[in-house]
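Retro notes - structure team

What went well: the batch runner handled both jobs without manual restarts.
What didn't: labels got mixed up in the shared folder, which is why I'm recording both outputs here explicitly, each with its sequence directly above its tokens.

Job 1
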Amino acid sequence: MNTITIRKRAYVSPCRQGGLSLVELMISLTIGLILLAGITALIVQQSSTRGELEKASREIENGRYAMQLLHDDIQLAGFYSEYSPASGVVYTVPADPCNVNPGSSNSGWDSTMPSIPAPIYGYPGGTADPTAGTTCGLKNYKPNTAILVVRRTATAPVAATAAVAGTTYLQVSQCNTSSTPFVLATSGFTLQQKDCATPADLRQYIVDIYYISQCDVCGANTDSIPTLKMVQSGTATPIPLVEGIDNMQFDYGVDNTGDGAPDSYTATPTMANWPNIMAVRVNLLARNNDITTGYADNKSYQLGSVTIVATGDPYKRHAYSELVRVINPSGRRE
């Protein structure tokens, strides 16, 4: 009899997937937190770096723009239309730089002498507004910052028939039979061109006074951003030009020999030397509008002959300097 042997195949159950142990889970979480902290720190650092870069870029832009504005106006100083002062002309320094009233002797213009105002004038910095007592009214003047006065006429001529009422113009005679070299007035323009028949063009008389204000927006909601401002032709309202300009100083190039080239530089020319200013060294100190956390400005800055001591505040600063030639007076002496 055959015996049938029945073999049972062993059943092998599929492998079960084991879960993470508590230790493994905690290690994974720790590694994830470390990576997250590193990424967060990197993002914060990049954001801070980008913020500082933006502030530095704004500071550089403000400094360069302020320098360009001053450069362009200084180069035009002494542009008095077609009038070219002869050697006997007397240069005056009006006591009130903001008084452009042609009927006032303070304007510095007199066609009978003749006399004209010095193209460049400046006030050294003081604890109070150096123009106090004049009609300038430099509101919120920042102490110990210099003030620059630039006198010129507009580059665009105006027909005598198109004069705006109340505006001061300079009209220069080109007729060789006229005994009056020029007229500074608001009306009554009768001088003529070379044909001695056509009325001569007019050019608006401009006096620009640059100074540093303690605030950009001043008044009830005042801020503390130092700002380069300008008062033009006796207007009572200062014009904000560039914010973040913390200080401004000037050195003036004096021509002592009459050849149109500066022989020496000084921050305080004598009254007799203001007509001899042939160049201006502009020194600016620009400041960030926002603070830098953890930073203290412990540096001092040399603005020409003036040293600006360290403030220790959290604002970053940068100094700028440029020498600008006063083209019109110096060109006439060459």
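Job 2
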Amino acid sequence: MKIFLVLGLFASCLSNDLWAQSSMKPTNQSATQTSQKLSASQQAIVTVSAFMAQGNIPQLTKALNTGLDAGLTISEIKEILVQLYAYAGFPRSLNALQAFSDVLKERKQRGINDPVGKEPSLLPADTNRRQFGTDNQTKLIGMPIKGGLFEFAPAIDQFLKEHLFGDIFGRDNLDWKTRELATISALASLGGVDSQLRSHLNIGMHNGLTEGELTHLVAIIQTSVGEKEGAAASQVWQALRKERAGNPSTK
């Protein structure tokens, strides 16, 4: 139980000093990548994640229907709503999962049988969760993460590595690009987590999200979720783009 209580604080615990280590060196992005837009299903992930994080069940219900209509599977949506408890907390995750269950029942009554999709594979029983999670964290971020807050509170390092990066990011029914798309959307909608949002924008690009896709994500937050949230996310994103453009090591 201690693991889950601490993980719920994840989005608010990581500092600028710690996550400065995660400024990756992405590959060059072509003009096509810069102008690339999110697909219909990816756009639905943005709104599902955003409204889940805010606890806006009426809007989440609409977004869930849109996501299913756009081709997201039941497994994919459930996985997103489960993953985001680490950023938005258990109450928001549980309420969102209940809303999703209600949506599926209502759609089934209308004769709509949505595809279940791929279920996550089970890890081998002898998996070393600490090492597995550490390896996942290093691959996801692009380098080992240590020092700073992790030395101040070693327990959070253990819980992040074993549970978030091991148990959650180790599940294979969503790729990491999709997981980061959901995480960034949730953080952009929460407010007060600019440091974490900036870090995950970098991590998202390290895992395949393009500048064009992230610009589109921010625009969706502003037009569909909230002008205040969108403006704040845009400020973080534009500052990061400016920094990356002026840093030769990110070319």
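One thing worth noting from job 2: The chain has one domain: 2-118+127-246.
We'll revisit the folder naming next retro.
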